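EI: anyone free to look at a 96-residue chain?
SC: sure, send it
EI:
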Amino acid sequence: MARVFTIAVKDTDRTFPCAEDQAVLGAMIRERSGPVNHGCCGGGCGVCRMRVESGNWFAFKPMSAAHVSEADKKKGIVLLCCVQPRSDLVVAPVTS
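SC: here you go
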C-alpha cells in the first residue's frame, strides 16, 4: 500500500492527502484544494507551476524546460502534474 502524505498550501488553511504514487496536482484537483489552475496535466503547459517550500518530491515524468529550468528546480519550482510526494509538502504559488 502506498504511503499517504499531507500537502499544505502556504498562507491558506488548505491541506489535502496525496499518495506517494499520485501526482500532487491530481490530489489537489480531487480534493478541490486549489489555488492552482491546470491545463494539459502532462508537463507541457506550465499552468500548474508552483514552488515546493518544504519537503521531498520525485519527478516521475519530465517537466517542460520552457516552464521549469534547472535553476528553477534548485529553488523548488516544479510542475505539480509531474511530481509525487516523498514526504509531507508545503507548496506555494510562484511569485515573480
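EI: The CA atoms of residues 6 and 17 lie 5 Å apart.
SC: 👍
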